[in-house]
Task: structure prediction
Amino acid sequence: MHINTNLSKFTGQFTTMISILTAIHWNIDPVIFEIGSFGLRYYALCFLAAFVVSYILMLNIFKKEGKSQELLDQLSIYIFLGTLIGARLGHCLFYEFDYYIQHPLEMILPFRMINGNFELTGFQGLASHGGAIGILTALWLFSRKTKTDFMWITDRLILVVPLAGAFVRLGNFFNSEIIGLPASVPWAVVFEKVDAVPRHPAQLYEALAYVVIFVILWTMYQRNRKPKAGYLFGVFLVLLFGARFALEFFKENQEAFEDGMKFNMGQLLSIPFMLGGLYLIFRKPKEISK
Result:
């Protein structure tokens, strides 16, 4: 019995060692270069690429549908601010409420005071669900300001959101954050800045899922330029947040309080979006237009 136990332990250790050796090792510096206190990060480039690519695609849509570029420029400002503010507040309120309720200024300021000294922190912590809420709020304000139909602009904007999300998740991969659970799959990744454990590259799973969703929505739009109002938005909500819900099973929880939960915060926040999507898909067109 003692020999079998030792053999089993040795076999397990050997298997773990082989997994580590055969896994993809990821240890890239997330900062591309630094000049003084300023550092250009891959994440920032991915975030910028998300907005640039989205703008180009939206400009193509606006021109085909007879909308002005000036209108798109206004929309871009609303979306940028809505995304940043919503994602930041979403992280602070959904994931670290206890800390930020005691330090409210750190929600909106990219620095903090430590022993009387300023420490530049940037905005460390952005939540995609908060970003989604921020975008929807920005769209509502934009539609009121410009007298643009809310559902029309929403049905068009969601065509590019999945692709933008893919860029952001790629940025998370460069940052070695939002990591996956331990895994023995051939494509497992060891995020050396975190630990020496082979893990699911959950960020890449999500990025790939978002690219597929982008292709589906873009194809649906190209085949039917005038679907019923809210239909594409509904499909987007079901597909994107359904994928998010499923892929959370491959991720490590972001905060310790989630460890005792059957479904983590990301999954719980995805459910209302999916239900809203189903409602829009099956709701009668004449009801949507009210």
